[in-house]
Amino acid sequence: MTYEHGTIDAALAAVAGDEPAVIQDLRMAFIEGVTRALEAMHGAEDGQSWRESALRMKGLAASVSALPLMTLATQAAERDGPDSELLDRIGQVVARL
Fold this sequence. Notes:
By secondary structure, the protein is an all-alpha fold. It has one domain: Up-down Bundle (Four Helix Bundle (Hemerythrin (Met), subunit A)). The chain has 5 helices and no strands.
């Protein structure tokens, strides 16, 4: 997923400038946030919790132009509740970040 890495890094560089350490810190914060949102989606017991977690992930993805992740999170937010197949696809994308 080289393209995704490049897109994320470009978005972070726009915020942090030419500061590799800051870019790395921001990247780690993004990955931690997305991972927490994914864990919340796994633990969602109702539609509202599922949608809130999906929207959190969508916002994080949008903030760094991670379009494939943003698309999947949008699809998840439109569901009435947990969707294991969609969750697996999101997990695959997150694992490649």
